[in-house]
Write a structure and sequence with these properties.
By secondary structure, this protein is an alpha+beta fold. About 35% of the residues lie in helices and about 15% in strands. The protein has 3 domains: about 90 residues, no CATH class; about 90 residues, 2-Layer Sandwich (Prim-pol fold), CATH 3.30.2250; about 80 residues, no CATH class. The strands form 2 sheets. Strands 3, 4, 5, 6, 7 and 9 form a 6-stranded mixed β-sheet that branches.
């Protein structure tokens, strides 16, 4: 798939078929669909993955922005987004679908042994199994398995193969489980510490230690919106400690371990860390 006009043509074709679509940035985050929401100016959540409290005529962020309206998709704000987009995404719940996102080979093997055959789409790490029917979206229902349906979006990777099957009870049951019941095994962090080079403003090593401990506790205490909490905590730590060279890979590993204990995958942690560094110009 090429970018620009070809991506918009793909989006319009999908919308005509009843699939609510939206553009994605190169980092897989969504654009806002009006000028007032550029760079989260209206107060949307980090990376605009959750709709914000904006006063625009229609929702502007994340899955809430997905639409089948060709007029909206071809409007000036979105025309600019399509020119810069990294991909087309869609809101599966808005089309009456659920996507079982299988993120590794073990997850694919589990699906083949457990779930009824359905339309399947290959991804860079595994497969998307698409079913007819909706449920709530839940991450980490099993190691390497996310459910994407209501209030979620999925990158469009092609029509896939095989006919759509009805959403099975086993997937509905997984959606009802609390994601905290299934924890991914923490993996070693592979993110290098910032190079530093700025002036250190810390009064003592205890200042940094206290900051990392407080950050770990903030993540551990998160009762909801764990993705947003992890991102904001990473952003705060990098803002305070990321430019002077005091932050080490050991400190970062502690933060990643706390996030993974709350159900975040290593990939999600790495993305949040990278997005925080980008936001700070690091």
């Amino acid at each position: 798939m090429t970018l620009g006009r070809d991506v918009l043509s793909t989006a319009l074709a999908l919308a005509a078929g009843g699939l609510p679509v939206m553009p994605l940035r190169a980092d897989k985050g969504p654009f806002g669909n009006c000028p007032n929401c550029t760079r989260n100016a209206c107060g949307g959540r980090p990376n605009m993955k959750t709709p914000g409290p904006c006063q625009c005529p229609r929702p502007c962020h994340a899955w809430a922005a997905a639409t089948t309206d060709p007029t909206v998709l071809s409007s000036a704000p979105w025309t600019a987004a399509w020119r810069r987009t990294g991909a087309v995404a869609y809101h599966p719940g808005g089309a009456g679908l659920t996507v079982v996102d299988l993120d590794n080979a073990a997850a694919v093997d589990w699906a083949r042994a457990t779930l009824p055959p359905t339309c399947t789409v290959a991804t860079t790490r595994g497969e998307h199994w698409i079913y007819q029917g909706t449920t709530r979206s839940v991450n980490h229902v099993r190691d390497g398995v996310d459910l994407k349906s209501s209030q979620s979006y999925v990158r469009w990777r092609g029509p896939g193969t095989g006919p759509l099957a009805e959403l099975p009870d086993i997937v509905r049951a997984l959606a009802e489980k609390e994601p905290t019941e299934v924890r991914p095994v923490p993996r070693s962090v592979s993110v290098p510490a910032p190079a530093g080079g700025g002036e250190c403003c810390h009064r003592s090593p205890a200042y940094l230690e206290r900051g990392i401990t407080m950050a770990e506790q903030r993540i551990t205490d998160a009762a909801s919106r764990v993705h947003a909490t992890v991102y904001r905590t990473f952003l705060a730590v990098l803002s305070a400690h990321g430019r002077c060279g005091c932050l080490t890979e050991t400190h970062i590993a502690r933060l990643f371990t706390a996030a993974q204990a709350k159900g975040e995958s290593l990939r999600h942690c790495t993305d949040a860390w990278s997005n925080a560094r980008t936001a700070l110009g690091m």
